[in-house]
Amino acid sequence: MLLLFVVVLFSCQESENPTINEKGEMIVKFDNYVGNQTMILDELGSTNYRYTTAKGQEFNITRFGYYISHVKLSGPNGEVFVDEMNATADASQIKGYYRVVQGEPDTYNIHLKDVPAGQYNKITFTLGVREDGIQEGAVGGILDRAAGGWFWNWNSGFIHYLFEGHSPSSPVVQGDITNRVRLHIGGWKNIPSENEDPQRFFDNNVEISLDFDATVRVSESLRPSPHIHMNLLKVIGDADFEMENNIHSPAAGKPFSQRLAGAFIVDHTHQ
Predict the structure, then answer these.
(1) How does pLDDT run across 67-99, given as a tens digit for each residue?
(2) Number of separate domains in the chain
């Protein structure tokens, strides 16, 4: 009888934690908007102005995207998932870095794999590329500057957030292309000025934390998908394209980077 009791007790304990090593997947989807309008790209040189800023200036978009890294999930019962990070020359071994590029639907969904089974209600990520992704050597995949990585130089690092287009309010001419607008936000470290000159280098990486609209469950059979909306107008703010039309340095991008966190929201979540 004693032996039977021990066997039954052990069996009950085993069945109480059937998912102790279970893992699943969460798909984080990014949708880009301009106000309440879905973002649409136009050809370079287009005069089809689809959107209007807070200052009433018309504009369009010819190129757009941003880097996401250091993704973390957390739940109401202490659940935590931290996405693995790895920057290396081998493109197949790049982990934890993502680039959402408008016009390339395959980049809109971030697949987080090996997420411990449990409940989750919050996501945190870095908009940008931190020091661990800046290497004075060959880096592969979407961080490869020779293959189209959005990289300035070692002091400035990567362009985290890129918007290019046209506005009749902008006087900028580049070759045969008129009314250019370019907003490139980047920078990965603060380097104070050593003299009376203005500071040139800033850390414009932004950590963004968003609550889900509902708690979701991850398991081998449940693969939830939060949909994050990004609103470009929140980043442009009250910028004047007549003057602020060629933002291309960490210093010039600093005011815009301070508005980035407010541009992202979780619109809804599919369980």
Answers:
(1) 999 999 999 999 999 999 999 989 899 999 999
(2) 1
